[in-house]
Write a structure and sequence with these properties.
There is one protein chain. This protein has two domains: 39 residues, no CATH class; 85 residues. 49% of the residues lie in helices and 16% in strands. It is built from five helices and five strands; from the N terminus they run βββββααααα. It has a three-stranded antiparallel sheet, covered by helices on one side. It has a two-stranded antiparallel sheet with strand order 1-4. The termini are far apart.
Length: 134
Amino acid sequence: MSGLVLKLGPKERVLVNGAVIENGDRRSRLSIITPNANILRLRDAIHPEQANTPVRRVCYAVQMILSGDATPEDTRRRLLRNIEELSQVLTDHDSHQHLKRATEALLSDQFYQCLKSIRALLPREERLLAHGVQ
């Protein structure tokens, strides 16, 4: 995770390598310099019952790696298959760029970057589902 910068609001919580850390009363900025640290903003966390769409399920699976509840070895192959399935449904150039970045990040164990790329697809998925496209 070399070079990751987190900007936290007051009292915002973040999970770092399994430990929940709460920010103080002011906004702050943290630079994560340890490579391969597992980071998850708790405000971005998807709860199991919210993992009810294809993109949300992929986000949740990556989140489980970041939280330490799943191992990359047990999850990577399924995630790659799920990302490939998404690429067959989300066929626009922008979606493919996000999926390509997610795949590259997943293959290089950059799970926060993978999650970030997949999360960028959530608004698009919501719009498609709202219009009855499946």
